[in-house]
Amino acid sequence: MVAPKVYTVIMWRKTVGIMLICLGLVGMGATAVLWQSGRLDVVKGVSVTNSPLTHPVIPLLQKPEAVDQSWTLLITGDIIPARTVNWQMTLKNDFSWPLTNINDVLKYADLTLINLEAPLLTNCPVTREGMRFCGDSRFAAALSDSGVDIANLANNHTLNYGWEGLTETEGNLREVGIETTGFTALPREIQSSPLPLQAFLNPNNTTKYPESNPSNSKQNLAYAKNCLKDISCSRLTVKTLQFHSGQVGQNLKIGFLGYNAVGQRIDREIVRSEIESADTLVDVLFVSVHWGKEYERYPATDSIAQDDPRELGKLFIEWGADVIVGNHPHWYQPFDFAQGKDGGDKVIFYALGNTVFDQEWSPETKVGYLTKLYFDGKNIIKDKLEIFPLGIRDYGQTYFLEGPEKETVLDLLQP
Q1: For residue 226, what pLDDT band results from cuts at 50, 70 and 90?
Q2: What is the DSSP letter of 119?
Q3: How far apart are CA 266 and CA 326, in angstroms?
């Protein structure tokens, strides 16, 4: 397989306007300059822990040296291993087939967040039609092998096989080391944690702990909310990045929430309370959201998706989110930068298009993109994004676009 080109999108503002320069580097050269070995647990003396509940105290030197806190996170569009995609994987007996051509890019980020829009079942019916989606449970291992760390499960197809199907899906993902956010049917196993983080993470917990603020009813609502089998709220998942330089160590807590605004309205009181509460518990907060009218190039609403993505995105940022990852339209859409309540740069992705799906019936539904975000500690590096335009062929296999097709995607994404 010929290695894809990696395109670094550099953005800055001048008095003459916004300029976008795309620098094409052959192969994985751009990534190799930054990461000598790939994943964060084997480079730069940094490690990732899955549990947000254990934060080792690392003694500092009397004159602490600076610790490099640079890290990356990659986001995808809709991943739907259902219908003809599942039929193809089963026929080939190759459940990594949809991702084979993009594996290297998925792996070469410190964290990878996807939107998984189908339950993964042991007895998923093999079919090439219908709107009740599922994928084979063996696709979970393929996702793990591709470097996926977190899967958002808040969308309009996650519950196609009910809460029982979601229970099996979460179990299959956990078995291969993938954490989930959004809808949940399984309680999280709590080892030890400070309250109220325990209350937030434990979906069976309905107690208002004394650590929550009695004068802040919205904060208490988030701490007390029972999110088990509840589509109005989200499981909070936290990843801890551990940075080391000699004897010096520093940690960052990265939080993930997920919500669905398709076939239902966002409960703004609940979502605001959860985002505001999560913002106090983590250093960087990602919010995945399923929203917007299908098959549109720019954010829009309809009778099925009534919440305006542009309005919601701004609200989520105001409430404390750092990055909004939107999906559902099946067409890629542009992204916006915004200023957060802390004065820092934030970003709203409205839709990244299809990453894996069988919608071969139109050119638009066969194109999407991946984005790698760069951070310096808690801060997004605004003038550095990596955009990877994608195509889909053979009813489900993703590949990197080249030539005019690639340039068309990059041109539309110019801020």
Answers
A1: low
A2: -
A3: 14
CA 76/CA 215 separation, integer angstroms: 39
Burial label for 123, CB within 10 Å (0-12, 13-18, 19+), is: exposed
Cα 163 to Cα 150: distance, rounded to the nearest angstrom: 19
Q: Find, among 174, 222, 170, the residue nearest to 199 by Cα.
A: 222
Indicate the pTM of the whole model.
Answer: 0.80
Does residue 291 sit in helix, strand or coil? coil
Three-class SS of 262-288: CCCCCCHHHHHHHHHHHHHHCCEEEEE
Cis bond leading into 196, ω under 30°?
A: yes
pLDDT above 70 covers what percent of the chain? 73
Gyration radius (Cα) of the chain, Å: 20
Contact 212, 63 (CB under 8 A): no
Contact 240, 283 (CB under 8 A): no
Who's near 360: CB < 8 A, 6+ residues apart?
366, 392, 395
Contacts of 80 (CB under 8 A, 6+ apart): 117, 118, 133, 135, 157, 354, 356, 357, 358
Beta bridge partners of 79: 116, 356
The pLDDT assigned to 246 comes to 61
Nearest 5°: phi and psi at 214? -60, -25
Max mean pLDDT range (56-60, 63-67, 165-169): 165-169
Q: How many CB atoms lie within 10 A of CB 342?
A: 12
DSSP for 9-68, written as a single string:
EEEEEETTEEEEEEEEESTTHHHHHH-SSSSGGGSTTEEEES-TT-----PPPSSPPP--
d(CA 29, CA 33): 6
